[in-house]
Write a structure and sequence with these properties.
The chain is of the alpha+beta class. The protein has helices at 11-17, 27-30, 55-67, 119-126, 145-151, 158-161, 196-200, 234-247, 258-267, 290-304, 316-334, 351-365, 391-410, 429-448; strands spanning 23-24, 48-51, 72-75, 92-95, 102-105, 110-113, 131-132, 168-174, 180-184, 209-216, 218-219, 225-231, 252-257, 278-284, 309-313, 338-341, 344-345, 371-374, 379-386. Helix 8 (234-247) packs antiparallel against helix 10.
């Protein structure tokens, strides 16, 4: 790969081909594009950053990079928790954050969206039409649709409404040689050719740069009723989740363990019960009387699993407060020190076993591991915390991280449910996929990007 220097790639030619201000090279400006939220200590120094405003700018940038063998790191808002948007030395960071257009078409219940549009902006644009874009990563106010599609982002409502890919009908992608292709379109049904569209969803910037997305919208759901249950231990809470899976269809089913509740209370006191071993927050948005019936069934599941208290409310403001408590968990845990954010996913019936193993890992390695979970999906976010600058603490955190990935595999789950493999989990990917599937992936990636310029080091 090329690197900066007098004989390096002709950045001036790239600058001349793009509008003024689109290409950044001075370190003071490019610094903001080196890291994502993962804050990897070995983030590289980009040769340049391109802030594209159109698909043509993306084509120009990728074409230039291909001609000069410059690695390209596609980037949205940089909220990756897997190091997927972390710069490498001598790369071109290709940011699509300026491509923010949103056009809602109520007749087809679709939105045509630029990759730089914030997830929350799409929701806001759909709402006046009585429409809704369901995927809601905890970062929905700060992450982009391009990043969401590239990671197949999940979130809180996936337990009922699925993940990003379930709402992607079409996209434009700039391939590694600078060509632009259109995949899918505005119809819900489309079986023409190989299903290549879905290959790009979750490809983490390794197969192409997304420049336009067609999203499916659905009618706004009924206002949700909320159920809050405290338990003596995470095992009881997990048993309640398993029971609910068989009897109800919650629109949200989130879990915080005692350490996560404590972190939230330290960060932003909300009156949560910090003496409890675990907190479940569930919602039902079933229409009419079905909502209170579903809440009653969920309350019964909690009581039968040994909940120490169960509270239900139809008041949306009160419900939102508990939702905000869940959303505050990420920043609250981050405020406790340096953090390795985990994202394993297990079949829901293995939740109790997985949580017990994670608690044992925390004890064995002497690490602090507050746990939040999209519990209804079996998607666990143990966050391994250590004091900043404590090298021994970092070492133990890394050991815990690897041990938790093994828990996912032992439970028949996956090393990443929604954040992606990025740079942080690539060494564990072969353990999950095996040699044949890894080889298949390499052949697909090699066919689409023979020069290997797109996000090298991500996935493998
Ligand atoms: C507080 C917080 C809470 C979070 N909660 C969740 C959650 O609940 N669920 C969840 O799934 N994630 C969550 N995340 C992780 C993160 O927000 C998601 O992975 C999100 O989808 C990344 O979007 P982004 O715009 O920041 O993309 P970036 O971080 O910039 O990039 C992410 C990946 O997408 C690629 N990419 C970005 N744009 C493009 C493009 N236009 N074309 C091709 N590839 C591209 C990048 O190369 C990289 O591999 C959370 C993060 C934070 C900080």
């Amino acid at each position: 790969m090329a690197s900066a220097g007098t004989d390096g790639p002709p950045v001036d030619a790239l600058r001349a081909a793009l509008p003024e201000g689109a290409v950044l090279t001075d370190p003071a400006s490019t610094e903001a594009y080196r890291h994502d939220w993962t804050r990897l200590p070995d983030a590289g120094f980009p040769l340049a950053v391109v802030r594209a405003s159109s698909a043509d700018h993306v084509r120009t940038a990728v074409g230039w990079a291909a001609a000069h063998r410059v690695p390209v790191v596609p980037r949205g808002a940089g909220t990756s928790l897997a190091g997927g948007a972390t710069a490498i030395d001598g790369c071109l960071v290709l940011s699509t954050e300026r491509m923010t257009g949103i056009e809602v078409d109520p007749a087809t219940r679709t939105a045509v969206v630029g990759p730089g549009a914030l997830t929350s902006a799409v929701k806001d644009a759909a709402a006046p039409h009585g429409l809704w874009y369901p995927p809601d990563p905890g970062s929905f106010r700060i992450s982009t649709i391009g990043g969401n599609v590239a990671t197949n982002a999940g979130g809180i409502c996936c337990v009922k409404y699925g993940v990003t890919t379930d709402y992607v009908l079409g996209m434009d992608v700039v391939l590694a040689d600078g060509r632009l292709v259109t995949l899918g379109g505005r119809t819900v049904k489309d079986v023409a050719g190989l299903p290549l569209l879905k290959l790009f969803v979750g490809s983490e910037g390794t197969l192409g740069v997304i420049t336009r997305v067609v999203l499916r919208l659905v009618p706004l759901p009924a206002p949700a009723g909320t159920l809050v249950a405290y338990f003596d231990c995470t095992r009881d809470a997990a048993r309640a989740v398993v029971a609910m899976g068989a009897r109800a269809r919650p629109s949200m089913l989130e879990l915080l363990d005692a350490a996560a509740v404590g972190a939230v209370e330290d960060f932003r006191p909300m009156g949560l019960d910090r003496d409890a071993g675990a907190l479940l927050v569930a919602q039902s948005d079933a229409p009419g009387t079905a909502r209170s019936e579903e809440i009653a069934v969920m309350a019964e599941c909690c009581e039968q699993a040994g909940a120490r208290s169960v509270i239900a409310t139809d008041d949306p403001v009160e419900g939102d407060l508990f939702l905000e408590a869940r959303r505050a968990a990420g920043p609250a845990i981050s405020a406790r020190g340096s953090v390795l954010a985990e994202d394993i996913c297990v079949p829901v019936d293995r939740l109790p076993a997985a949580m017990e193993r994670i608690e044992a890992i925390a004890r064995e390695h002497g690490t602090e591991i507050p746990l939040v979970a999209h519990a209804g999906d079996g998607n666990l976010h143990p966050a391994i915390v250590w004091p900043p600058g404590d090298e021994e603490g970092r070492r133990r955190a890394e050991e815990s991280f690897a041990a938790i990935l093994q828990v996912a595999l032992d439970c028949g789950g996956t090393i990443t449910g929604e954040h992606g493999v990025g740079r942080t989990k690539r060494s564990a990917l072969p353990d999950q996929l095996g040699d044949d599937v890894m080889e298949l992936g390499r052949r697909v990636r090699g066919a689409l990007d023979p020069l290997g310029i797109l996000n090298p080091g991500v996935l493998w």
